[in-house]
Design a protein that fits this description.
With 164 residues, this protein is of the alpha/beta class. It contains four helices and four strands; from the N terminus they run ααβββααβ. The chain folds into two domains: 35 residues; 120 residues, Zincin-like (2-Layer Sandwich), CATH 3.30.2010. Helices cover 54% and strands 12% of the residues. Strands 1-3-2-4 form a four-stranded mixed beta sheet, covered by helices on one side. α2 packs parallel to α3 and α3 crosses α4. The structure holds zinc ion.
Length: 164
């Protein structure tokens, strides 16, 4: 009997520890989503944009800056997308995937979307292969994108306003 009581206490303790870990994970993932972007991540994005603009000047002789929004209102796991709406070009990055993919975001996604934006600016609206033409790829590489391949199975150039 004595032994069983001890065992019971032991299992109760395990359950409380497990609940604690669960609560902590829940808290961490939710605070990350609901909080504004951390200063460190914001800084990485800003620095990368500067670098991309410098690369643009080197390759094309001009710098074109686009509005870049970080949002958690994206459907699904898409990294980023670029919209062309009545002449206005906007880049969106998905905050929901930043926690696990921030390096990819900084090294590849920003240049990837900037290349779509620049293609729009140059008057290219081809939607074949989701806008991932040879010219797009070349621009992405010149802007310093580390991985200039389309994201798997995703359409992310949009010729309209986003619903948010
Ligand atoms: Zn793309």
């Amino acid at each position: 009997m004595h032994f069983n009581k001890k065992l019971e206490k032991f299992f109760l303790l395990i359950i409380f520890i497990a609940l604690g870990v669960l609560a902590k994970n829940y808290y961490t993932s939710h605070t990350f989503k609901d909080q504004p972007l951390s200063q460190k991540n914001q800084q990485r994005i800003t620095l990368k944009e500067k670098e991309i603009l410098q690369n643009m000047r080197k390759a094309f002789g001009y710098e074109k800056h686009y509005d870049l929004n970080v949002t958690d209102k994206f459907p699904g796991r898409l990294y980023g997308l670029t919209t062309f709406n009545e002449g206005k070009i906007t880049i969106y990055l998905n905050k929901k995937v930043m926690q696990e993919s921030m390096d990819y975001m900084v090294e590849s996604v920003i240049a990837h979307e900037y290349a779509h934006a620049l293609m729009f600016s140059l008057g290219h609206f081809e939607e074949d292969s989701g806008g991932h033409t040879e010219q797009w790829k070349e621009i992405c590489q010149k802007l310093g994108g580390k991985d200039c391949r389309p994201y798997v199975d995703q359409k992310e150039i949009i010729m309209s306003k986003m619903p948010f």
